What does this fold into?
Amino acid sequence: MMARFLVAVAGIAWLTLSAPAHAQVPQYGSNVTLEQAKKALAAADAEARKNGWPVAIAVVDTAGMLVLYQRHDNTQTASVQIAQDKAVSAAMFRRPSKAFQDVLAKGGDGLPVLGLHGATPVEGGIPLTIEGKIIGAIGVSGVNSDQDSMVAKAGADTLK
It folds into this structure.
């Protein structure tokens, strides 16, 4: 009975998050290479340093497996896992983690998102794409979530 309830909740949440019928959900491409991950991480790192933000940065492949990771000195220890969680969420659900944050912020109908295993409803995880296909994701944690997202975007934008 509980299993059916959880499946129903997850289904409702997925439908809530699904793209409109006219929008194309990006498909997966080849996994991010180490060189691509280094390029994205370097750009994200430069953005964080430019702003004086101590962050953790994680790059994962399409399955959410860690490819590259970096933590600045004086980054809060919780950010180690949060950066990875944001990246995994963006890669596995093929959308920025902010999509979950926005749905959850609506309350009511958005609450089922809390039942989606692996969905991190906090801004700062962005899919990495090349030629419109997702090759992995980058996640950042350490400052405000909108600032985390700015850092992640700087990394993601280097691969487009």
In short: Residues 2-18+27-157 form a domain with the Beta-Lactamase fold (CATH 3.30.450.150). Residues 131 and 148 are 24 Å apart (CA to CA). The helical segments are 2-17, 34-51, 78-93, 97-105, 145-157.
